[in-house]
Amino acid sequence: MYEKDGRQYFVVDGHTHFWDARPENRNRYGEGFIACFYDYHRNLSPEEYVWDKEKYDRYSEEDMIHDLFEIGYVDKAIMQPTYLKDFFPGGFNTTEQDAEMAANHPGKFIVNGSFDPRDAERGLDELRRLKETYGIRGVKLYTAEWKGDSRGWKLSDKEVEPYFELCQELGITNIHVHKGPTIWPLNRDAFDVADVDHAATAFPDLTFIVEHIGLPRLEDFCWIATQEPNVYGGLAVAMPFIHSRPRYFAQMIGELLYWIGEDRILFASDYALWQPKWLVEMFVDFQIPEDMQGELGTISEDQKAKVLGLNAAALYGIDVPENMRLAASTEEVAVASQPVSPA
Amino acid sequence: MTAVPDVLCALEGVRDPELDQSLVELGFVAGVQVERDAVVVRLRLPTYFCAPNFAFLMVADARAAVEDLPGVHRARIALEDHFTAEEINRAVDCGEGFVEAFPDHAAEELDELRTLFRRKALLARQGRVIDSLKATGVKDLAALRLSDVEGPDADRCRELRAALGLDARPEAPAFVAADGVPVGAADMPRFVRMTHLVSLSLEGNAGLCRGLLKTRYDLEGVAA
Known about the structure:
The structure holds 2 protein chains of 2 kinds. Chain A contains 13 helices and 10 strands.
């Protein structure tokens, strides 16, 4: 919970990791991967929040609890696994690692699972096991994940259908989608989110949370989200710009509010890429600069409360203390009625 | 003999196809070496994992641009610190295409990808042209012709339209959708909003790329 000017905000961190990128658990790709993460961390964090590389490779359980819950205002953190076993032989951040952390701190975490359609029948069994063992209500899918000779997959691949059907059957309704730099075939734009559109239309009972609000394809993401009511945007990676490039952040938030509305945007730190403490503080203090309000409008306290926690709480059935709920929820109607295709 | 500034000037015209900005301005040119009629250009990118398809286009376009210079017989482009540097450098050096560089992972060449991003670039540039027109009080955007707009963004619009096979004559409408269809007065407000969104996306990505490059290579000279 974060309190400012007499108002209390319920905070759900929609995207957190507990990773192991130590040298003994990585090959040259893993080394490149964590170096890239570290550059994101160094480039976009306020100086006092920058860690040394060794800590960044593998922070402790105590660090995470401290940064999220003791000083970071987080009421509930959603752990998103990212296996990447072709880069990190023991797994970068598996459901098992997350579940162990969650078990040690009851009530703090929501553990999500993952699946990979290239695992075929075996993967379906594994998804059932994750549901039975951890009671997962969501999955994180990383379409750029390598697997042997494969460089990735799409949500529109035929092989994915039985997985989404099983998700529906098991009540795994929150599908977090993360795009990366590779895909099959490699000649296509790997960051394209058109496959999310396909899946969201085919599976209207599932909610698709596009991580990083589709960055670097914000325009494609906004375009599909105007058309598909079950497509949401996660603010991981977008949030830290609030510090380094506040006008860019203002434009992004203004566009999101215009194109998809305040009910489908979720706060996330992407810990340990960044830490929730400064992100929450700056977000509550944030306003769209006056000279941009003509086109972008403003953001209200209620809208911030929704983004910081209430929207995610609704998706995951998290109980929010009475005083932090909104007086009366209003039905949002998407502004966009006559979309113009981005390209 | 060709000099380093000539090579840099040629590279100035090579763009990151994803961002529609010059490789030189982005800081992607790490070094140029000229030895008689042979040139070596070192390229670097903001991350180890930048998408291989765009990286390939930049390396191939850089080679073509430098070899277009009079007095250059041979240009070798060396992409550095990238997970597919070896595959890309080898293929471009042999004059091979993307499919030959990645026989197991690519299904086609990159023409479609390039076209898609030219369309995005066209929308983004039109957004910037519209901003400068609005600042001078122009109201009826749908009535304008290409000959009515000027400046670097308008020039780039003309180039992109020509490259996309769209009408780029002076009498053609100034503002067109990504597929070349002129934008009418009724659709203009939504169109303007979309061009701003695409422009935000491209410029935002370019800003992130500059920042990451600066962090990765500990640079001061590249504007973030």
